[in-house]
Amino acid sequence: MTNTNYKSALITGATSGIGLETAIRLSESGIHVTATGRRKEKLIELQNKISCDIIEIDVRNQEKIYSELGKLDIDILVNNAGVGKGFAPIFLAEPEDINTTTETNVTSFLHLLRAIVPGMVKRKKGHIINIGSIAGLYPVSSSVYGGSKGAVHMINQNLRVELSGTGVRATEICPGRVNTEFFDVAFSDNPDKKEQMTSGLELLEQQDVADAIMFAINAPWRMNVSMIELTPTEQVPGGSIIKKAK
Ligand SMILES: NC(=O)c1ccc[n+]([C@@H]2O[C@H](COP(=O)([O-])OP(=O)(O)OC[C@H]3O[C@@H](n4cnc5c(N)ncnc54)[C@H](OP(=O)(O)O)[C@@H]3O)[C@@H](O)[C@H]2O)c1
Question: Cβ neighbours of residue 57 under 8 Å, at least 6 residues apart?
């Protein structure tokens, strides 16, 4: 038997932005939420707002992923924690940013799936929301961040195949620029670059992305929303660059 009578959700990166908004929305719809992140004070703030369990975790701590998160019975995994350290071209990227971005956005992302999905498959019930990006679908001149989100795209595509016959659903959400702390963290050492990335257009809000996530989760069981791409109206990916080599 398969169903979408989901009762529990685990959200990584629930201390701000998309994860925080999704935690609120899921809780409002009667789902028991387990919210995670590194900033304990933010988790406590959330717990004062909604009824939820909180787990302070750095998702790069694999041991803790398996010991603390792997034991939970989770119906909805919002695989959201991510960073944008590494927007510089690869020939300028800081080696440390390469590690932070790939460890957080790809390695930990996979371990979270490894820890949570077996329970879903066993119970024949579950929905995985993988947070990708348009940077994983189109070249945005960021081998590191774009590459990490490109991996998320192919992970979601492969997951759909791997899950066939289990009744478990998987959705990739690919936003363009969203007005969250993401750019503060990504450009903590370069406020001008943050300004450049976030000004001159009306950004998406975290509520817009949470709406898309809730649409996928609330779809009837017969329908798997495989991917949603959403961008600000004023941000359009694509085109080609022609520049004379100097
Ligand atoms: N904002 C955008 O324009 C945009 C566009 C496309 C895709 N995305 C993706 O959307 C997702 C959420 O980003 P956001 O925009 O909501 O940014 P955000 O407000 O900066 O939220 C990022 C979340 O990830 C958590 N996180 C980061 N590193 C972590 C780690 N090592 N361990 C545990 N938690 C960690 C942060 O929590 P702590 O700091 O408390 O650990 C925070 O809750 C990311 O995957 C991002 O790549 C964002």
Answer: 36, 37, 38, 64, 65, 68, 69
Give the Å distance between the CA of 139 and the centre of ligand 1.
20
Domain boundaries, the chain: 8-221
Per-residue pLDDT tens for 133-151? Answer: 999 999 999 999 999 999 9
Phi, psi of 171 (to 5 degrees): -135, 135
pTM above 0.90, yes or no: yes
- Ligand 1 pocket: which residues have CB below 6 Å? 12-19, 37-39, 42, 58-60, 80-84, 104, 131, 133, 175, 177-178, 180-182, 185
Q: Which of 3.40.50.150, 3.40.50.720, 1.20.1600.10, 3.40.50.2300 would CATH assign to domain 8-221?
A: 3.40.50.720
**Per-residue confidence at 86, pLDDT binned at 50, 70, 90?**
confident
145 assigned to active site: yes
